[in-house]
Design brief:
The complex is a heterodimer of chains A (168) and B (602).
Chain A: H1 2-19, E1 25-31, E2 34-43, E3 54-60, E4 71-74, H2 117-129, H3 139-147, H4 149-163
Antiparallel strand pairs in A: 1-2, 2-3, 3-4
Helix pairs in contact in A: 3-4
Chain B: H1 2-25, H2 28-37, H3 39-65, H4 70-93, H5 100-126, H6 134-165, H7 170-199, H8 207-236, H9 244-274, H10 280-285, E1 289-290, E2 295-296, E3 301-303, E4 309-311, H11 312-319, H12 335-346, H13 393-397, H14 399-405, H15 410-416, H16 449-494, H17 498-530, H18 536-557, H19 562-596
Antiparallel strand pairs in B: 1-2, 3-4
Helix pairs in contact in B: 1-2, 1-3, 3-5, 4-5, 5-6, 5-7, 6-7, 7-8, 8-9, 9-11, 14-16, 14-18, 16-17, 17-18, 17-19, 18-19
The chains are: A alpha+beta (168), B mainly alpha (602).
EC number (chain B): 2.3.2.27
Biased composition (Polar residues) (chain B): 504-548, 566-575
Biased composition (Low complexity) (chain B): 392-412, 550-565
Amino acid sequence: MMAGSALRRLMAEYKQLTVNPPEGILAGPVNEENFFEWEALITGPEGTCFEGGVFPAKLVFPPDYPLSPPKMQFTCEIFHPNIYSDGRVCISILHAPGDDPMGYESSAERWSPVQSVEKILLSVVSMLAEPNDESGANVDAAKMWRENRTEFEKIAQRLVRKTLDLPV
Amino acid sequence: MRAVGIVLISVALTCAVIGNAYYQKKQFYPSVVYITKSNPSMAVIYVQGLILVLMANTFLRKIFFGNLRAAEFEHLMEKLWYAVTEACLAFTVFRDDFSPKFIALFTLLLFLKSFHWLAEDRIDYMERSPVITWLFHVRVGTLLGILFSINLAMFNYAYTSTIAKGASVQLVFGFEYALLLTVVLNINVKYILHTIDLQRDNPWDNKPVFLLYTELIIGLVKVTLYIAFVAIMVKIYTLPLFTFRPMYYTMRNFKKAFHDIVMSRRAIRNMNTLYPNATPEELAAADNVCIICREEMVAASKKLPCNHIFHTACLRSWFQRQQTCPTCRLNILRPTIMQTRQQNQAQPPAAPAPQPIPAQGPNPQPGPAPFQLPAFWANFPPPPPPTPTPGTPGASQQPGPSSTSSTSQTPSFQSLGPGSIPIFAPSFHPIIPLPPVPIPPTNLTALSEEELRMMEGNLRQAVEARIETLKRVQLLLDAGIAMMSQYQTVTTIANIPLSMSTTSLKNENSSSKMSNPMTKIGENSQTSTSQNHKSNYSNKMKASTSKTVAEASTESIAESSITSTNEAVATTSRATSEILSEQELLRRRRLEKCAQGDPSID
C-alpha cells in the first residue's frame, strides 16, 4: 500500500527529527492532518554570509514518497546561485535520476529512497555554505558569487536581517 | 469580493440592456430581435452568460469537491489556459462553423473538462489523505457516473451528426469526448484500485503493477485515438496543430510507461530468481531496518548482489522506477553485461601482450617466475614460456613500454632493437579495443558551441582510453622492476663480483624512481597521441615524447645515468603544462557559457 507506506515513513522521519533533531534544523508537517506538506526552518551555516539567518522553507512530498523526491521551496526571500528567485531549491539530491534540469549531475548524487528529510536539509545547509556556481538556478546570484563576492555577501546579509525582522 | 462585484455589475448591465430594449420596443418579440441585432447588447448578454456558466461551475464544484486545495486550483488554471489556447487554434480551422451554437458546445466541453481534471487530482490525492469519508465515495461515484454518461451521450451525438451531415466541427467534439471517456475510465480504475487498497489491512504489493498496466493500456488507446484523429483531419481539412501538444505528451507518457514496464519486469524477475532471501543472521547484522520504508524487516526481504538488504515489496516498487540498488546504485540489470565486458577487455591485450618474461632467458631457473605479480596482472594472459631468443635484456625490454604508450611506432621499433621484433610479431598497437580518442584541434577558441559540446561528450571515453593505456604502462614498469630484482637474485646466486651487483642495485633504484616519471611520460605521450595527428605541433610533440619514452626505457635498463631521465621529465612536463593550459581555457569558456545560459531552463 503506497499511501500507507509513504505516510508511515513520513511519520517515522518526523518522530526521528523530533526525538533527535540535527543542529540548526527544524522540520515538521504543517498540520497533523496532512503529513505531505512540511515546514522547515534552516539556520544559516556559521562562518558564511548566511550566518545567523533563519530561513523558512516548505517541503511537499509526492504520494509515492520515498520513491520520488519531495519538492523544496524557500518561503522567504533568498539570494543564492542554486535557488530560483521564487525560492525553489535546485539541488541534485532532490532530482530523481533521469531528469537532469542542468545536465551536469551524475546519478550518484541523485534522489534515492535511502535519502531522507534530514539529509536533504543538511545538504541544503551545505549548499548555502558552498554554492555550486556551475549550475545557475539564479544566474544573477551565480555571476555575483563568482565575480563580486563582497556585493553578494552584502545582499545575503541584508536578507539575513530581513528573515530576522531586523531593520535592514 | 471582487467576484461578487463583477457579478453585480454584469447583472446590472444585463438588466439595463433588457430594460432598454423593452422600453424601446414595448413587446417581447421585437425586443429580442432588437437585442440580437445590436452588438453591444449581445456583448453584454455573452458576458452575462459566461458569468452564469462560471457560477454554475463553482456551484457544482462545491457540491462534488468541497473546497479545492491550492495545488488543485493551480492545476485547474494551468490546464484551463492550455485548453483555451488550443481551442483558439482549433477555431482557425473551423472558422466557417463559427456560431453561437459552436461557442455553447465549446463552453460545455471546457466545463466538463474542468471536472475531469479535478476528479483526476482528487483521486491521486486519495493515496495521500489519511481519512477517506463516505461523503468522498458518494461524491466521486456520482461524479464519475454523470461524467461518463454525458461523455457517452455527447460522443454519440457527434458521431450521428457526422454520419448524417458529413464532416464538421463535430469531428473535433467527438474526438474530444472520446478522449474524455478514456480519462473517465482511467480515473475509475484508479479509484477502484485505491479503494481496494484502503480496505485492506496489509500493504497491497500488486497495486503499482496494476496502475502501470492501466496507464499502458489507456496510453495505447489514447495514442491510437490521436493518430486516427490526425489522419482524418489531414485527409479532410488540414494539419490539426492544436492536437500536437497533447499528442506529444500522450506519446511520451506511453513510451515511458512501456519502458517502465519492460525494465521493471526484468528487474523484478532478476530479483525473484537471482537474488537470495536474506537470512536472519544477515538481517541482524544489517540493522534489521529496511532503509526504504524505515520499518523492521520481518517480512520477506532480499539481498542484492551488492549485499544490501531491503524488503521484497519495497524493492519491487523501487524497481518500477529505477533498476538500481537504492543504497549504492549498482545497476541490477547490468551485472551480466559487465561481466562480458570485462572478458572483452581482458581478451584483446592477449595478442600484443608485451612479454617481459623472455628476459628470463639468461635466468638459469626454468620454472615459473619467482616474483609475485601485481594483482591486476590477473587480467592478462598467463606468461608465455620463456622464448629461446636470448636477445640482450635491454633490447627485449624496449618495445614493451613504447608499444603501449604510442599508437604507431613501428619505425622506432626497428631503429631501436631489430632483434626484438620477432617476439612482437603482431606489431600493431594494443589499443584496439578502446574507443578512439577524440582529436582536439590546436585552436579551441575557434570552435563553435556544438563542436565544443561534442568534444565534451567524448571526453570521458578519451580519459578512459588514457587511463587504460596508463595502466598498461604501469604494468610494464612493475614487470620491469620485478625483473630487475630477479636479476639481482641471479647475480647473487651466480656470485658475480660485487661491483657488478652494486650497479644492478643502483639500477633497480633508478628504475623504481623512474616508475613515477615514466607514468607521466606515458600519460603525456598518450595525450599527445590524442592531439591532432595532422597538426605539426602535436606531431612533433608525439615524436619527441615517444622518443623520450623509448630513450628513457632503453637507458634505464641499459644502466644509464638518471640525468637524462630528468631531462626527459623536464621536457615532457613542459609539454603537459601546455596541454593543461589548453584544457583550462576550454573549461573557462564552458563556465562562461554556463553563466550566460538561459535562466529559464528548469
